[in-house]
Amino acid sequence: MAKMKFLCDEERCIECNACVTACKNEHEVPWGVNRRRVVTLDDGVPGEKSISVACMHCTDAPCQAVCPVDCFYTTDDGVVLHDKDMCIGCGYCFYACPFGAPQYPQEGAFGSRGKMDKCTFCAGGPEEDHSHEELEKYGRNRLAEGKLPLCAEMCSTKSLLAGDGDVVSELFRNRVVRRQGRQEAWGWDTAYNVK
Amino acid sequence: MMRVFFLITVMISLSACYEDAEITLHQAGVYKGKLDTHSQTAEQREAILAKRFGQVQTDR
Asked: Is A122 in CB contact (< 8 Å) with chain B?
């Protein structure tokens, strides 16, 4: 059975933020909530690297373990989702998550936290597939449409990969072998016939 | 006498510095929300998504 995973190849990421924009647009994510973001390491220093980060849909998800109302579940595809009707917005999952994935919309006049929102791997939620409720609460369910997450599909350098863990790791392994430890300038093989 | 008292005081104060090295491990509870139903089986989805991956995610 497929286990869906994200992989960001930091050698290819050009910090264009297209993945962030694609995600926000596809799911109409509210203002102040970022399901995905691009982080730059050693910004401004030669050799800086950027990576696109969102919920990694962990195999043994810490958010799932600490949730006091047990609103998290893992689908057959290995995607970690949650039921927003049960979420109480306590923030425990935010403290447990090593990637800072859980986000909380601001609700009310005193800035109280709303229900947690995070990347769904474009797999919607526990509502009926393609229903208005699912779209409203979790965003579009692209997996049910036979499509992969838009952030990865939109990535122009194919830095961000999303799919079955075995297939993704095989693709990445081939890239690493091809690079042979050298830094890879994306497109040079094609454009300049560099081997 | 003072020396013994000093030693006892030091031992008591040091014993108060004990730190529990055991960490709290949490096990995931049983999901209590709505059941997530899919129109296709996991195998069907896997085949469809594998095909899609070949179309849009492969290296150029």
From this structure: no
- Judged by a CB distance cut-off of 8 A, whether residue B47 touches chain A is no
Beta bridge partners of A51: A39
For position A88, what pLDDT does the model report?
92
A81-125: pLDDT as tens digits? 999 999 999 999 999 999 999 999 988 777 788 899 999 999 999
The DSSP secondary structure of A149-182, one letter per residue, reads -HHHHH-TTS-EEEEEHHHHHHHHHHHHHHHTTS
CB within 8 Å of chain B, chain A residues 19-78: 60-62, 64-67, 69-73, 75-77
Chain A closest CA to B24's CA: distance in Å?
11
Asked whether B32 and A69 are in contact (CB, 8 A), the reply is yes
Overall number of domains in chain A: 1
Which of A162, A164, A174 is the closest to B50 by Cβ?
A: A164
Where chain A has pLDDT below 50, the residues are none
Residue range(s) defining the domain that contains residue A47: 4-192
3-class SS at A4? strand
Q: Is the pTM of this model over 0.90?
A: no
A144, B48: Cβ pair inside 8 Å? no
Residue A139 belongs to domain with CATH number: 3.30.70.20
**Chain A contact present for B3, CB below 8 A:** no
